Every structure is written in C-alpha cells, then in structure tokens.
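Teaching note: in complex prediction, the entire set of molecules is handled at once rather than each chain in isolation. The prompt given to students was simply: 'Predict the structure of this complex.' The entities are:
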Amino acid sequence: MPDGPGQSNTGTVEDDTASVGAGLDALDTPTAADTRGCGRKILGQVLPPVVALVVIVAIWQALWAAAFWPEYQLPAPADVWTQIWDRVTSGEIVGFLWISVHRAVIGFLVAVVVAIPLGLVIANFSVVRRGIGPIVSGLQSLPSVAWVPAAVLWFGLTDASIYFVVLLGAVPSIANGLVSGMDQIPPILPRVGKVLGAGRLASARHILLPAALPGFLGGLKQGWAFSWRSLMAAELIATSPQLGVGLGQFLHNGMSLSDMSMVMAAIILILFVGIGIELLVFRPLERAVLRARGLNGSL
Amino acid sequence: MTATLEMGVQTGHAVRLSGVGKTFGEGRRAVTALDGVDLEVAPGEFVCLLGASGCGKTTVLNLVAGLDAPSAGEIELNTSRPAVMFQEAALMPWLTASRNVELPLRLAGVKRADRRARASELLELVRLAGVGDKRPHELSGGMRQRVALARALASAVDGDGNSLLLMDEPFSALDAITRDVLQSELLRIWRATETAVLFVTHDVREAVRLGQRVVLLSSRPGRVVQEWHVDDIDPAAQAGVVDAINTRLHEVISSHA
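The expected output is the structure of the full assembly:
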C-alpha cells in the first residue's frame, strides 16, 4: 500500500475532504418542495370535480326545464335521483352492487392470475412475442361485447359466459401492461443485477418485476376498467332469471320498461362503481408506488 | 475461506488478461474492438485504463466483469465475482440506500441481521451513515455514486486482499468539485479495503492522480500501447507526466485521421 511522502499531513487533508464532502452533500441533496397545508391540498383535490358535477347537473336541469325533449327522453335530475334513492331505501341496491362488483372482482383477479405468466412469457421470449404478441395487443382493441354471442352459444346463460367475456376483456390489457412495463426497464438495471450475482430467477424476482411495477400498475388499472366494461356488456345482453339482477340487468330492465329515469339511474350507478374503485384502490396504489420512486407525486 | 487464501498465495494477480480479443458481429460487418490485450493487475494494485472514446476500454471491463465473453484469449480472475461500478449509479429506485447496498448480500442468501450490519458498515465507509433510509431520488449525484460504490463493495464476495473493483468512468457525469472529492474518497477507501482496482477513464489527469499504473489503449482495435508507473512521482513532476501521456494519447487519436 502506498504510504507516500505526504503521510504526515494526510490527516488534515482527509478531514478537509470529509468536510467539503459533507458540505456538498448538504448543498446538493434535493429538497422536498410541497409546503401547502393539508386542508388546502384536500380542498384543491375535491373542489374542482364537485364544481364540475354541479355545473353538469345545472345544465341538465336547465335543459329539462326548457322542455326541448319529452319527459320520456330526458327526465329531470330529481326523478333520476328518486330512482336511485328508492333502490337505496328498499335495500335493492345492495343486491345490484354485490352481484356486479363481486363478479367483476373475481373476474379481474382470475384475469390477473392468467395475465401475469402470459405477460412474462411474451416479454421474455422473442419467439412468443412475435407469435402471439400482435394477437394479444389486437384483442385489446376488440370490444369484448363481441364475445357475448359466442359465450352465450358455448356456455348458455350462465355465470361462465359472463366470466368468459370479462376474462377476454381484461387479460390482454393486463398482459400488455406487464410487457410494456418490462420493455421500459432501463437496460442498465438487469446488467447491474448480473454483476451483483443475480441468476435468471433472482433477477426476475428482485429486479425485473419491481422495475416493471409502474407499467404493470397502469396495466392493472386498465384491466380493471376493461373487466368492468365487459361485465356490464355481458350483463346487459345475457339476462336471465337464474343470473340474478346486477347493474347491467337493472339497466336492461329500465330499457324494457321504457323508463328513461331508471336507465339513467343505472348508468350513473355503473359510472359510480367504476370511478369509486379507481379512486379507492388504484389511485392510492399508483401514487404510493410512484412517490417511492420519486416519479410524479402530483397525481 | 482457506481455499480462497490458498488461491491468493498461489497466484500473484487479481486479474490477468492474456491475448484477449473481442469481435462484435460477423462477416464483413464485424468490428474488432479488442485485439491481443495483455494486462495484469496485482492484488491491491490501482490500475487506470486510459483511452479515447471507442477504444474498447468499457469492453475490457465488461469482459472482466463477465457481462460478455471474449472472442479470443483468456481472462484469469482471482475472485469469484469482481465488484463493478458503472458511469451511472444505477441504484434500484424502489429500494432505500441501505436496501440497495443489501441487495447483493440478499442475492447471495446472507441472513437479514448480517446484511443490515454489513450495509451500515459500508455506508459508514463511504461517509453516508445517516442516509440509509433515503431513496435514490432524495440523494445528490455524488451521494448516489457513493451508495453505488458501497453496493459494489458489498457484492465482492471474498475480502482479504483478493477482491477486485472494476470502475467504468464512475465520476465522469459529476461536477468538478464533487468529482474531486470523490477521487480522494476513492483513494481513502482503496487504502482502507486493500482491494485491487481497474479504473477506466478518458481523463489523463484523473488517471495520473488515482492510479499507481496508467495503461494506454489504442482505438479500433484496442491494444495496449504504453504504460506508465505513476505511483511514486512527486506532485511537482505530475504535470510533466500528464503532458507526456496526453501527447502520446493525441498521437494515438491522430493516427485514425
């Protein structure tokens, strides 16, 4: 080891380096910026959508009051609200929501289980990617309602038909999300993994999957939206007494009875569930993941 | 442990390259990046590999690191896994600083408590004891590079003078003051750990300041052109050596015009 001629004063030189280094660390460390109060932050989040909603309802009320269209085409906001409120007070709404949401959740979870291996295989094997990659991306643009007739012919008016349609809607988006998440991993990270001693499996577990997580979460979010849409399409078309009444059937019943206020009530409830799950489940999840990586905490 | 000790006694080098060549591509479009490179780094020695862009110095490092296989020649390593540091820190953005340092230990199956202890030891070594819980985006560029150094040191499995640290222009993306500080820090850590270092750079001044030996590589194909022992020269003579190496480097580059 070099114990050079400058040995006698290395002590002071090293102290100097240490203090300069510490000063640089203090100066260069990025500072957290958000200084707004918690109350104002929540207000800033909540106020704009509430204002937008009030404006939309006001326009609706004005159009209804102007009576451009007959009542059976454009009902009053209050009538639609009454439809919803009646279902709430009679307890029927619990049944609608339970039937639809539990189907969507089960369908979504099965879709996740199917899509993860599918996505991993497509992302990691170029032959598979060339073979079925375009088909999986293509399936994303095929409206899953197109599967309903086939499902009904194959499985009859059963839960199996409904789950079939939900799966075909959700699996391609989740798999694609995982593939694009893997594609966006900076190539340096798997190389670092290799020099740190990660084998193929350890690299997938400790480096590739966590690195792909933001893209994968985007895929999950889209997969949920597709499950929910596909489910509504399936429920709307495949109606039968033994399937029970979900939100889709409720909408179908409104159409059969030519009751516009019931139809709009159903649409609002469907929208409400879709937005609710997104806000309660996916938004916080996505925000936590992105925040932890210093990416865009303003969501 | 005895096995590694014996190996250290038997062989007098941390890494030895003999006649190493590397060709990318095939047929007419093949590019020869390295041709007959002979290079030896002794245990505990600090060697700087110097060359213009495209001379294949990074290729040498990739070959030694095992990220790529040589087309010809042999590479003998005296350690089962060299520590590698890249130009970017390349920390895992989802892990805290100390978890990043723990990662190679985790991959090697080290127990949690031992991992923790080793990681905090290494963070202390790079003077980052207080920031173990921070995420990479909360650290400055120089701090990230030091975490990367701690992580690289954690990945080197054998200690006891057998370890080898490979560095690929690790400070070139940093500002001048930070680079200066990190160079002194690297020298301090090198003395403390007694590891051999193979340091790739295109900066002559940096090479002379850090290395005990400076090896100049020619470009396309990369060959060892000349080497200088810069260990014992006094600071006054340093400028002269830097000039001499610079002149030779310019000659090598001009020969491609």
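Point out the following to students. Chain B touches chain A through 44 residues (CB under 8 Å). The first strand of chain B starts at residue 15 and ends at 24.
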